[in-house]
């Protein structure tokens, strides 16, 4: 019975200062949305790595990813026990019209690349056209849509790593096997790039950035990786082989500090709104000190009064929190639309929703703590004298 | 002489202002019989409100004894004291002290939440109490929709809803016009005369004080007259 009254009073008290309540609710909702979005940004960075197949290994230079490996390694890797097939790719790094038009470009082995990436689905006729045309390219569906490209279009790229003005003819558009597949890549013939560059910069010729290795048994990934690396031990270009997932996590590690900063900001946002909410509750409790004293005079316990304060604070923070959680989904969808080039997936995870809910509860509890303690401390006679 | 409901012996109260002790009540002896109607009078700072607060169990004495119906309320732990107040004391404040977010019915119902009464029983009690103070038709009104006199009558209904032995009233007419004050005093007369409630009332107003059966005067924390039970 008393709990019902606590809820009733909490609800009524919340509506006493509608503007203040409205602003506080909005503040909590915005904080919870921000928290959810920032968490999702971090999750999405890692999600890209988690999508990496554990049945594919990536072999790169032991020294650094920026040091290429001899293309001839391909045959030696293929002979390592457990390896089914090998392909390779090179970061091209060209500029399409303007530097702001950034997208991933890889010079790949046209004959084998798509065999190792079955999630990139290309119409057989388009793939055959691509394989035939050494100046051809295959682009992801989202990338083509973004720039309005269609099959047959010429795409000029200004080389950075490989100098000169390049032009590629789109021969096909690949579609992801699911919505988590990256559809923003631009793939051209490594052999075309290699032959062109041989005359200009022979030192860059016959080199590849990474080998992509398909293995027969994903459970043997560590053993096969070790076998590949030992094949090139003590050579001029030692290798480092790891699963695609580990390789992508290595990339993420490069921006670990930024991700940590984003996570910190997410929690700071919650702390800030906690302080704002605590101030709101302190003001509300101060205004109601005479009412609390009256309740105590009538025989209600200190605990009941504390419960009233906690009830109101939790009701307010949960209302704001739930509103924030509901708004997170459309906000995340808008954010994803606005940053399509950055993330392959951008999904608000259930864990994030739980954290948002937990944050809302924490905000409510912490905000009520000081006013509740104060209401217990104050003597009835002093509370009855309080000016409201 | 009727039996004493309130028995006060050598009661003193000292507050501290910083490091300075400020004596407010000095060795008060007072007997109040069951069914009595006592007005406490005195100038500001005489200690009359402090004495009322001690009798109501919302403050604790520094020394002396304060027995109400044989119970030494000064010795009760805080939770027991709260339960004792809920069962035995009805409060009427100068500024009514109603909950602004609750309507008249809900305000009067508040003390009943601490009893074991069910919803129907509570409704019956509240309707009776509000009818008694002449506000049966204002049950759904919120305090800001009622006049000062009506709010004080709601407060009186709240004070009597648990059928307490003792009603304490601190300047119950201090914020009211003459007519409303008379209405309130008439109600207190009825509570005392018809229901036998013991009333202790603090007032500055001699006209108001005259409505009580007995007047007790305090000055500078000392009882000047009217200390014996009637």
Automatic annotation (TrEMBL), chain B:
The keyword RNA-binding does not apply. Keywords: ATP-binding, Nucleotide-binding, Transport. The keyword Transport applies. Pfam families: ABC_tran. GO terms for cellular component: plasma membrane; transmembrane transporter complex. Residues 6-230 form the ABC transporter domain. CDD domains: ABC_MJ0796_LolCDE_FtsE. One of its GO terms (molecular function) is transmembrane transporter activity. Belongs to the ABC transporter superfamily. Macrolide exporter (TC 3.A.1.122) family. This is ABC transporter ATP-binding protein. It comes from Stagnimonas aquatica. The lineage of its organism: Bacteria, Pseudomonadati, Pseudomonadota, Gammaproteobacteria, Nevskiales.
């Amino acid at each position: 019975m008393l709990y019902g009254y606590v809820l009733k009073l909490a609800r009524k008290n919340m509506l006493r200062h509608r503007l203040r309540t409205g602003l506080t609710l909005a503040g909590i909702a915005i904080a919870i949305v921000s928290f959810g979005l920032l968490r999702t940004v971090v999750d999405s960075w890692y999600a890209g790595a988690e999508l990496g197949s554990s049945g594919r290994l990536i072999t790169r230079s032991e020294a650094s990813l920026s040091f290429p490996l001899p293309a001839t390694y391909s045959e030696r890797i293929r002979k390592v026990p457990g390896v089914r097939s090998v392909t390779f790719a090179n970061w091209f790094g060209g500029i399409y019209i303007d530097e702001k038009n950034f997208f991933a470009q890889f010079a790949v082995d046209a004959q084998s690349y798509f065999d190792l990436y079955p999630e990139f689905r290309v119409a057989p006729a388009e793939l055959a056209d691509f394989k035939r045309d050494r100046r051809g390219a295959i682009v992801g569906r989202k990338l083509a849509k973004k720039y309005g490209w269609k099959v047959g279009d010429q795409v000029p790229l200004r080389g950075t790593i490989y100098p000169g003005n390049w032009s590629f003819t789109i021969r096909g558009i690949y579609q992801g096997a699911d919505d988590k597949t990256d559809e923003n890549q631009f793939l051209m013939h490594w052999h075309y790039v290699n032959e062109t560059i041989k005359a200009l910069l022979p030192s860059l010729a016959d080199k590849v950035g990474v080998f992509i290795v398909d293995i027969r048994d994903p459970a043997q990934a560590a053993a096969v990786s070790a076998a590949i690396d030992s094949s090139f031990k003590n050579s001029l270009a030692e290798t480092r082989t790891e699963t695609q997932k580990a390789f992508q996590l290595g990339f993420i590690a490069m921006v670990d500090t930024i991700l940590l900063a984003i996570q910190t900001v997410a929690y700071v946002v919650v702390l800030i709104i906690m302080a704002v909410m605590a101030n709101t509750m302190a003001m509300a409790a101060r205004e109601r000190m005479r009412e609390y004293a009256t309740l105590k005079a009538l025989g209600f316990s200190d605990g009941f009064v504390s419960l009233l304060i906690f009830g109101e604070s939790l009701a307010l923070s949960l209302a704001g929190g739930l509103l924030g959680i509901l708004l997170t989904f459309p906000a995340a969808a808008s954010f994803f639309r606005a940053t399509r080039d950055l993330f392959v997936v951008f999904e608000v995870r259930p864990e994030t929703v739980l954290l948002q809910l937990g944050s809302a509860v924490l905000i409510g509890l912490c905000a009520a703590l000081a006013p509740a303690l104060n209401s217990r401390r104050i003597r009835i006679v002093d509370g009855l004298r309080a000016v409201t | 002489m009727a039996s004493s409901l309130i028995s006060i012996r050598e009661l003193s109260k000292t507050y501290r202002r910083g490091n300075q002790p400020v004596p407010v009540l000095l060795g008060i002896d007072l007997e109040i019989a069951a069914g009595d109607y006592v007005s406490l009078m005195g100038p500001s700072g005489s200690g009359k409100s402090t004495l009322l607060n001690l009798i109501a169990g919302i403050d604790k004495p520094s020394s002396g004894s304060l027995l109400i119906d044989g119970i030494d309320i000064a010795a009760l732990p805080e939770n027991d004291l709260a339960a004792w107040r809920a069962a035995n004391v009805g409060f009427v404040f100068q500024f009514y002290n109603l909950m602004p977010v609750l309507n008249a019915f809900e305000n009067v119902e508040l003390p009943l939440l601490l009893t074991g009464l069910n919803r129907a029983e509570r409704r019956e009690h509240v309707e009776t109490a509000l009818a008694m103070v002449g506000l049966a038709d204002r049950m759904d009104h919120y305090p800001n929709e009622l006049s000062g006199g009506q709010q004080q009558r709601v407060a009186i209904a709240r004070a009597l809803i648990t059928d307490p032995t003792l009603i304490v009233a601190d300047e119950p007419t201090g914020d009211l016009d003459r007519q409303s004050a008379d209405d309130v005093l008439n109600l207190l007369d009825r509570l005392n005369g018809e229901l036998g409630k013991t009333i202790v009332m603090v007032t500055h107003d001699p006209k108001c004080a005259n409505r009580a059966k007995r007047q007790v005067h305090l000055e500078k924390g000392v009882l000047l007259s009217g200390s014996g039970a009637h």
